[in-house]
Amino acid sequence: MKREVDRIFYFKSLKTDVPQKFGRKLSVVFAAFIIAFTISFPINFLFTFDGATHEIAIVTDKKISSGKTRDRELYVSCNGKREIYTVSNSEYENTSIGDSKRICRRKSALGLEYSTIHD
Question: Given CB 3.0 to 4.6 Å as the disulfide criterion, which of 31, 47, 64, 91 pairs with 87?
Answer without folding.
Answer: 91
